[in-house]
Design brief:
Elements (H helix, E strand, L loop, with lengths): L10 E5 L2 E8 L3 E7 L9 E6 L2 E6 L6 E4 L4 E11 L2 E8 L18 H19 L28
Antiparallel strand pairs: 1-2, 2-3, 3-8, 4-5, 5-6, 7-8
Length: 158
């Protein structure tokens, strides 16, 4: 049932008509997806993840992305992979349940409607996680959705 509450689509950050990256999020992580240029050996790509910064590029060249993150991440459980011509960066949120408006500070920020939809989806993910026998995939909120981190005592840690 949890997969019913997974992100339905990726958000795209487009700059000057070119897609820079796509991203989505869950309660615990933010995922970035970068389409890699063809003809470059995968071993030349690099990605450095720091608590508040990410840098992506091709070794020996200026970085493609070199930006501060919107919120801090856990570096010991964040990682990156390359598969099918795409770099997938998994950033483990330091604050589980926090709704991110974008992975990169000041870039590609969600509009208020999309941000509200993300917060509602994350709240339903939280309900599903706390009540695994119930199906919240068809649940809806009327009005403003509360913050999943603090609603009714906050997220329970294991």
């Amino acid at each position: 049932m949890a997969e019913k509450l997974a992100p339905e689509k990726r958000h795209a950050f487009v700059h000057n008509g070119q897609k820079v990256f796509e991203w989505d999020q869950t309660l615990e992580e933010v995922n970035m997806y970068i389409e890699l240029p063809k003809g470059v050996p995968t071993k030349l790509f690099s990605c450095t993840i720091q608590a508040g910064h990410v840098e992506v590029g091709i070794r020996g060249n200026p970085p493609y992305l070199n930006h501060d993150l919107t919120h801090p991440v856990k570096t010991d459980s964040s990682f990156w992979t390359i598969e099918d011509g795409e770099m997938h960066i998994t950033l483990q949120k330091r604050e589980k349940g926090k709704t991110w408006s974008s992975p990169i500070q000041g870039q590609g920020i969600l509009d208020p409607y999309a941000a509200d939809q993300e917060q509602k989806r994350l709240m339903l993910q939280r309900f599903q996680e706390e009540n695994p026998g119930f199906d919240f995939s068809q649940a809806q909120f009327s009005g403003t959705c509360p913050d999943p981190r603090s609603f009714m005592g906050g997220i329970r840690s294991e």
